[in-house]
Each structure stands twice: as C-alpha cells, then as structure tokens.
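Subject: sequence -> structure tokens, single chain

Hey, anyone have a minute? Need the predicted structure for the following. Not urgent.
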Amino acid sequence: MKIAIIHSVNQGFFPRFHTALTQAIRQAGHKSITYLPNVGGNRRNHIPGSRLYGTPFIWFWHYYLHRITTFQDIYSAIDTLHLIHYLNQDKPSIIHFHVVNECKLHWPLLVRWINRHSIPVVWTFHDCRAFTGRCPYFDEIGCEKWKNGCGKCPEKKLYDPTWADSTALQWKIRRHLFTKIKRLHIVTPSQWLADFTKQSFFCNTPCTVIYNGVDTQRFSQKQPDTWKDKYNLHGKKIVLGIAGAWEPRKGLDYLIRLSQELPDEYRVVLVGKLPTLTTGKIINIPPTKDPNLLASIYQHSDVFCNPTLADNFPTTNIEALASGTPVVTFNTGGSPEAIDHTCGITVPKGDFQKLKEAVITVVSSPQKYTPQNCITRSQNFTNKQYSKYVQLYESLIKREQNK
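Reply:
Had a minute. Here:
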C-alpha cells in the first residue's frame, strides 16, 4: 500500500506529526510519499524523499488573487496539474490530506482526478477551515454562520485578511467540491472538532477521532534544571506557557495579567517569540529546537498554563503532562480533552479570576496533581496514536476490495 500525503507548508506542528505518521506507515510494511507546494518554507525545511510541485510564482499569483477576491480553492490550475502528473506516476492507494486550503490547489481538477481513479481519501482536519468560508476558527466570537452558509464575515480582518468578502460564495464552492469526493473519510484530532464537523456540510461523511500523539518518553526522561540559573528562578513557583509565536489568540493577555497579579513568589515564563511591546513581568525564553532543554523547562515548571482562545488539540498540553507537569487550560476547543481531574484543571474560557485561582490551586496541591498522575495520563496520547491511521488506511482498502 502506498500513501500520498498532501500538505501545504512543512512547519509548525507538521514536521513532528509527519515523522511519527510516516514511521508508523513504514513499520506496518507500507510506503508513503509526501507532496508539498514549491514555496520557500518547503525548500528550506525539505522532507527527504518528498516531491515539490508547482512554482513559487503561481503560489504568489494565487495568494494575491485570494487577497483580492477571498476565493482560495479555484486557482493554481497549472500547479495542480503538476501534482496530478506526480500522482499518475506514483499511483497511490490512498490520498491523505492535511492542511490544504492555503492558496495551493485547484480543487475542481483534483477532485475530478480523485473520483476518476476511485482513490479513497483520508482528510485530517487540523482546524475548521474546510467547512467555513475562510476562517480556521470561529469560536472566539461565537459565529455559527458556517452551519448554513457564510457571508458578511465578522472575522474579515483576522486570519489572512482579504480586501473583499466573498465568504458566502466561497462556502458554497467548498460545499460543492468537497462533498463530491466519493470515498472521503475525515479524521479530527479532537472530539470538539468532530462535533462541529458533524454539524457542517460534512454531516453525512464518515468521521473518526484520532488524537495527536507525542514522543512521551522523550519528555519524561529526567533533565537537569540548569536553565534556571540564567533567569534566577531557583526557589520560585514557575507558571509556564509555550508557543511558537505569542499572540492574543494564544492567551498572551491573560498570561501578562497573571504575571502582574500572582503573588511575588510566582514567575510567568513564556517560551517563544513575544511581540516587541509586551508588558508585564514576563520572563521570555527564545524558541528552542533543543529537545532536552524543552523537556527540562517543562519538567522544572510547577504548572503549564494554556489560556488559548481558539485551538483544536494543542500538543503542548500532552508534552507538559509527559514531563510530569500539571495543566491549567481554558475550556477551549479540544484543549480540555488532554487532561482529567488528576492532572489539571479546566476553567471557563475568558474567566481570568478562575484561571488565576486554578493556577494557585494546582501549584499549592502537588500531592494531588502529582508528576506520576500527569505521566500516566499522557500515555493516552503517545506516538502509538499514528498506528490508528494505518489501521484506517487498511480498512478503507479492504472495503474497496470487498466491493
């Protein structure tokens, strides 16, 4: 069996996800080929053995047409024909989409080719954009237009702002194209997203929840706390937050306020790129690719605080648990699905006072929120999760063979 993995840009969550997924595929005796658009990020972060399709010029043209018209899924015909050329050469048994609504594909061509060749498709939704007119998340403002058709978008200035608002027509285009994929099976990394998917125009499409996994063993291996020396943190109660780049959606404003209002013995430590004008008593550690340093920061913090305002299933929660660190998070998206009452607290989204109280409760109750409780909980989200994708691939192929 050969799996064609199609994604937009090899950055953020995807490199680790891809590594774990392809390893599971190989261990089961199957093959995979990854297809990525030929843009700068994918050339800089090249995946060995992957195929880059199209040209940067076409992506640039597609992107600016999208900025003018709002439409994303009906340009890049030449690049998509190049991708189809590769698919014709490689003859995959399964196509596995990830984030693919980012000005990279001409969907009418691709859907027609998939249906003509009767290829089963697995599509992992890493956010909500496949069934909205534009936005990856809508729960920040409680929008429900996506259920019956977008239009007059209240988030027009968020998530890659455009000059026009054609979200009503874009939603109809997506509904028309995506529901035409004959052998589509959707996967979501959280029950929260699965519930939304079932309320969308994908309501009649099979949907399975497969949680993201992490290398829990790597985070549970004990590391020294020497990083504390540089920031004079010995003897302090550390409230940790981690993000690639901090922004309001990640809960930055709540963490800044925590740094100002928690008792003096607490310190808020944020790993990741902070905006230049960030206020508050924040200790900032730059982004790191050192897995041992990252594990040490998790392990030697007292609580991991994730006041995210829009998210699917943040793997930082799992990394914290695997390191033995309890989690406090808003009841946002799939974030609460990683924890239970033994290893953290979920509070209502946007309730700062309850967030602060939960942080103090967890830090003051190490006998309840023990490292072992956290590590035990993290075992539900190991890299064994990715073998479930292989099981899904095999079941879809078997179903085709039995027809």
